[in-house]
Amino acid sequence: MISWRKHYKRGLIAIGLLLSTSASIYAQGDAKNGEKLFKANCTACHALDKQMVGPALGGIVEKLKTEQNLDTDWLHKWIKDNKALRESGDKYANEIFAKFNKVEMLPFPNLSDQDINDILEYTTNPPAPEPAADAAAAVDTNSVAALEAAKKDSLNSKIILISLLTIGGLLLWLLLRLRQLVKLQQTDELAGLNATRATSFADLYKKYDYVGKGILALLGILACYGIWNWMMWIGVYKGYKPEQPIHFSHKIHAGDNKIDCQLCHSSAKYGKVSEIPSMNVCMNCHRNISEYKGKYMEPGKDKAFYDAEIQKIYAATGWDPGKQQYTGKTQPVEWVRIHNMPDFVYFNHAQHVVAGEQAIINSHNKKNPNAKIDVVCKACHGQVDTMNVVQMANDFTMGWCIECHRTTEVDMNNGYNKEYFKNLHDKLKKQYPQSEGKITVDAIGGLECGKCHY
Fold first, then answer.
1. How many CB atoms neighbour CB 364 within 10 A?
2. Are residue 93 and residue 168 in the same domain, yes or no?
3. How many angstroms separate the first and last alpha carbons of the chain?
4. Is residue 105 part of a domain?
5. Are residues 170 and 92 in the same domain?
6. pTM
7. Alpha-carbon gap, residue 301 to 430, rounded angstroms
8. What's the structural domain count of the chain?
């Protein structure tokens, strides 16, 4: 009996030690700091709840302990230098390396032991997300407010309409009464005079035919001007913003996430055309971003909408997010073009983005002090980083381009212009004395027909 009690007490002590040891594994780190470190170092390849480039890391400490009998020391070695661990002959390290297509994980010697403990604490006990503004609720609130405002406006409109109809009815009644009074008081002399007056439009036109012809001539001139003006604006689509097969919010990408325009539109700097980026450019980021976690929501859209659009990217590229590999089954995306120069117009993006970048920015900011730009693209395409759906921000007519060439000052002191236009400086100063030494694009051939037409 005594022996049994001794074993029982020893068992309790062992269980207590085991529990305290297990608890200490999870109590060594700060989950909130671990979350920051995880997002800064690990999210490119890992998530807590799903496999990405690497395995899901939620509960990884307990999983390794249960399945492989490995403790946190092994994880420390793996995180700091997994290559050295593999080269030491560690069996499980080499199994993991082979399982995930021999994609080598970056070493993190910069992480201290406490940093790693914080990360492991986060993977074991992730802190509850801080209460954030519910975008959907905000949209609903805005919708209700908008609906109430619309009802109020509708009621006001009805009141105004009824009031106008009432006033119109009263005026009509007064006119009829006045007509009756005039007839009652009309004398024979007035009746004879009325007999000589024009009583129809034909009589009136016959009596004042020269006035009628003048009015018809004026109407003809106005009609010709209207037709000419209409024809001049054919092909001008300022404000055109078609819906695309895959929704892409520039406000989220270029605005909130500060992605540089030329990261996606790379040929704008090196070629004539700023091409639509290929889908593999999207996959550079969205291979590891399979759902939308931003706080900003467009009116009428929710997280499910954005997640569905990301799935369209995967369908187009043939990407299987579960297996983290391409299937080879792709679907072409038929983008709707917004900006398209006519065939007889030559426009080179590189010439403006590289050679004219600072001059264009300076000119735009001088003319628009309340709407300054920091990227040359915005001078033509508008504040793209605020657009949910990209639209044509300017007219892009010949007159619009000429006006820009007439007002944009050329930096004559930069290395290229200073050398290339060395012999023209004096001539330009004499030819444009009013410029006070400031030369605009038109002075160096910016209005020559052959520059843009061929």
1. 19
2. no
3. 108
4. yes
5. no
6. 0.64
7. 60
8. 3
Are residue 34 and residue 118 in the same domain, yes or no?
A: yes
Please report where in the chains the tokens 């012809």 appear, as a residue: 213
Whole-number Å distance between alpha carbons of 105 and 284: 18
Residue 293 in 3-state DSSP? coil
82: CB partners within 8 A, 6+ apart: 93, 97, 104, 105, 107
Residues 336, 244 contacting (CB under 8 angstroms): yes
Tens of pLDDT along 395-415? 999 999 999 999 998 877 777
Lowest mean pLDDT, pick from 12-21, 88-97, 127-136, 322-331: 12-21
At 394, the pLDDT band (50, 70, 90 cuts) reads: very high
Residue 339 CA to its chain's centroid (Å): 16
Instruction: Assign residue 99 the CATH number of its domain.
Output: 1.10.760.10
Find the helix or strand (DSSP H, E) in which 320 lies: strand 319-320
- Residue 216 within any structural domain of the chain: no
User: Do 105 and 48 sit in the same domain of this protein?
Assistant: yes
Report helix, strand or coil for 39: helix
Q: Is residue 67 part of a domain?
A: yes
Task: Provide mean pLDDT across the span 110-116.
Answer: 89
How far apart (Å, rounded) are the C-alpha atoms in residues 248 and 225?
Answer: 41
Q: Which domain holds residue 67?
A: 25-124
Say if CB 442 and CB 406 are below 8 A apart: yes
At position 235, the amino acid (one-letter code) is G
Rounded distance, CA 225 to CA 28, Å?
A: 82
Asked if the structure places residue 65 within a domain, the reply is yes
Q: Render pLDDT for 247-280 as a digit per residue (tens, 0 to 9).
A: 999 999 999 999 999 899 989 988 888 888 999 9
Per-residue pLDDT, 438: 76
CA triple 439-441-447, angle to 5 deg = 130
Among 76, 96, 124, identify where a domain stops: 124
Using CB atoms within 10 Å of the CB of residue 256, give its burial: 0 to 12 exposed, 13 to 18 middle, 19+ buried.
middle
Alpha-carbon separation of residue 256 from 41, 251, 387 (angstroms): 21, 6, 11
Tell whether 106 and 153 lie within a shared domain: no
